[in-house]
Amino acid sequence: LQISGYLNLLANTIDNFTHGLAVAASFLVSRKVGFLTTMAILLHEIPHEVGDFAILLRAGFDRWSAAKMQLSTALGGILGACFAICAQSPKGAGETLAWILPFTSGGFLYIALVNVVPDLLEEKNPWNSLQQILLLCTGITVMVLLALT
Fold first, then answer.
1. Which residues fall in a coiled-coil region (predicted)?
2. What predicted TM-score, i.e. pTM, was given to this entire model?
3. Sign of the C-alpha dihedral, residues 61, 65, 68, 69?
4. Angstrom distances, CA of residue 72 to CA of 39, 42, 66, 81, 82
């Protein structure tokens, strides 16, 4: 088995840990914020996990082993949620939220921009760049509208 498969599993576990942090912290804010965060992460995770599964297959894992390893990385999410809940201050959830939500959202923005901006800069066709920027703005608009409802 190639080392890239194991590195991918480690990265996926850390990613799932931050997802668990975000979900638990957002439920500490309110049920609405918690459900919206959960839905956003689920929509993100479906294609992400399919891609990770393909990486594991390419790294030499058989289908069953790759599926078991992918499932084991989900424990990172459970640990992240437990950590967020256990990190609550006796003074209330406010102090916990003061660092967890900015940490996780900043990480998500960093990953998104690191993946999108280089592709935009290398794109030769201006129409494709415009489409990507419009879709990025559409996503931001949807998030704002969901936050206002």
1. none
2. 0.74
3. negative
4. 21, 17, 10, 15, 16
Containing structural domain, residue 109? 1-148
* Burial (0-12, 13-18, 19+ Cβ within 10 Å), 129: middle
Q: Residue 15, by phi and psi: left (phi above 0), alpha (psi -120 to 50) or beta? A: alpha
The rounded Cα 144 to chain-centroid distance in angstroms is 18
Q: Give the number of domains in the chain.
A: 1
CA distance 139 to 4: 31
Running along the chain, 149 residues long, what does each successive block of 10 average in pLDDT? 85 90 87 88 86 90 93 92 80 67 76 73 82 84 77
Contact predicate 57/5, CB 8 Å: no
pLDDT of residue 84: 85
**What's residue 92's pLDDT?**
62
